[in-house]
Amino acid sequence: MRRVFFIVGPTATGKSEIAADLAHDVGAEIVSADAFQIYRGLDLLTAKPDQATRAKAPHHLIGTMSIHEEMNAEKFRRLALGALDEIHSRGKLALVVGGSGLYVKALTHGLSDLPQADPTLRTQLNRLTLDQLRARLVDLDPEAAGKIDIKNRRRLVRALEICLVTGSPASAQRTKWKGVAADAVRSGGPRLATAATTSRAIFVFRDRDELYARIDHRVEEMFERGVIEEVRATGAMSETASKVIGLREIRELLDGKMSPDPAKPGSSFATNAGIGSGVQIEGAGRPNLIDSIGCPWARSGSILQCVAQIQQATRRYAKRQLTWFRRQTNFEPLNLSLLTHNEAVQWISQRASRSLAQGND
Length: 361
Hints:
By secondary structure, the chain is an alpha/beta fold. It has 18 helices and six strands. Helix 3 crosses helix 4, helix 5 crosses helix 8 and helix 11 crosses helix 17. The N and C termini lie close together (about 10 Å).
């Protein structure tokens, strides 16, 4: 691996802010490894780093892809390798920062030689129900069926597609990660090691209660800043872009399909939004929140229910991210709950500077 350092971890840990300060200090540029921040638009919903954060250092692969385009690990890998090659051509250091585990692994390990999507077969599979898809996958690849989220249609379809096109279980093929070094030489991309070593990657996390509180606060802040209008302004999008956490819930809210849930006593967000009181509170922190979709829904508690559902979905996603990075990598862990922001930046900076200097050959 040449002059690349990884900072990975679950959503809402503060990776973006730490990476921006670190990049500023060591003269590095940042390549995002986030499956949804790569799309243009939906800045609030995908929690893109704000302008002040991005102004501290050049950022790559944030807001560069149309929401109408499909994304996958192989496409990300090509784009990321190109960005890293460009950064290195200017003599700069690179930080890969994000929480999309498969995207990170695509860079550190390469990808197994899987078949391209078959449009005809995929159309046929998409006609099946989730139960039918899972039943077929159980027959063809019980190991994959046991690992894939049974509600994730896209992953079920892809696993079946691999099985049917290749005639072999998808689970067996996904374990055959190709070493990226030889492949990178052929593609002209930067030369990375077959796996990122602990000295060149940090896995950041926080104590669970603190992480969940940060997630809850971030979701509330998204609503206060106008995420409802942001989603309202979007139209059709690709299948992968439509998987952004919170998109389905807010669209249901806008369509009047969100189940009401009375405001809980003591909820500052409910109070500021005027939810559950039956009236809009004069001088509330964000009165436009109610006006953006209409008072009747807000009075019934639908906004609060939407917020709660997105918070729960985000916490579950963070839990999956934690499990992935703990099982799939040997990155050096760092509990950010034990450090201040500046202490964390300094701690990572010392390790990054040493490893980046060693890779400068």
